[in-house]
Amino acid sequence: MELIFLCPAIKKAIGGVKVIYRQAELIHKLGQSRGFSAAVMHPNTWFFRVRWFESQVPLKRAFFKLRWMGKPSFSNVTGVFDAQRHMVVIPELWARKYGTQLANMGVSYAIYVQNGYYITKGQPADLDGAYQSARCILTISDDASRCVALAFPGVEHKILRVHYSVDAKRFWPDQTKENIITYMPRKLADHSSKVLFFLRHHLPAHWKIVPIDGLNEVQVAVLLKRSKIFMAFSHFEGCPLPPLEAALSGNQVIGYTGQGATEYWRPEIFEEVASGDVAGFAQRVLDKVQAIDQAGQFDLPMTTIRTLADTYSDEQERKDMLAFLNAMDLNTNGLPA
Fold first, then answer.
1. Which one of 82, 150, 242, 271 is at 20 to 30 Å from 308 when CA atoms are compared?
2. Which distant-in-sequence residues (6+ apart) come within 8 Å of 204 by Cβ?
């Protein structure tokens, strides 16, 4: 039996894609001695592979036929998957597109909800059928679980909350800090540009703002180790990864929770700004810069950082993936929880 994780072919750095790759690779390793395997499939691509982080996950290639049912057209997976050989994990954005087809073919599938606010894409009746027919519904956060339970009454027993892991060896405050403020410009670009505009005449000359853009995972980690403040512009996200990586790297995080980050938003490290309050956002950053300058040192509570690292650890992710395999009735005998 092979577990296939469907994944969009996206070149830019997207945390959800990294989660799919990492968890598919983990399941593949767990299953090698238990008669099952796992792989990632980017539909209708041949040579694509994500390159901005390291991964040894197997890739499967397949082209889905286009089937017309009025407009728009969608992919027909008939002949690609076999009920006796395959199980499929569908990202929530593709639940409508592939869920009903797989159910009609008798192929067991799970829906992976990494963003509870993407589950609205599609006709409600089609979505209801896709979620009701899924064997398991993975959710990446408590907020995502709440969204699924609210949108699809009756599927609560299928929901399995799982965690991604953050490499605490890579994202950890073990480097000398500099007066650097970091942010990701692709996240709510209009908001971040306005915050920068309000900061331009007030930020002390010995501080600088550095965007995180066009960097691979290693380069991002190096920059976060150096910076002291991370500005979070999260918007309707399942469990945003960059603010957590920034916190584990020893940054004071200021900004939006995006809803999904509320579960790890500890006040000792994270400072919430109401979404859209860009003037207040800029003032919070300036207040924090002043406090750091006046203190003459920069320290964050390591107890909280260690707690976050334990919650989003390799060990927790492994336990969650074993629970998922059990929910899909795959053989996990002999694999320690």
1. 150
2. 289, 293
Q: What's the first-to-final CA gap in the chain, in angstroms? A: 21
H helix intervals, 170-216? 189-199
pLDDT tens digits for range 198-246: 999 999 999 999 999 989 999 999 999 999 999 999 999 999 999 999 9
Burial of 310: CB neighbours in 10 Å, binned 0-12, 13-18, 19+: exposed
| CB contact at 8 A, 140 and 111 | no
Q: What is the pLDDT of residue 304?
A: 96
- Measure the CA angle with vertex 141, ends 140 and 146; round to 5°: 115
**7, two tokens:** 């994944």
Q: What angle do CA 15, 18, 24 make, to 5 degrees?
A: 140
Nearest to residue 16, comparing CAs of 190, 234, 225, 227? 234
Instruction: Report how far residue 285's alpha carbon sits from residue 158's, in angstroms, rounded to the nearest whole number.
Output: 42
Cβ pair 67, 75 in contact under 8 A: yes
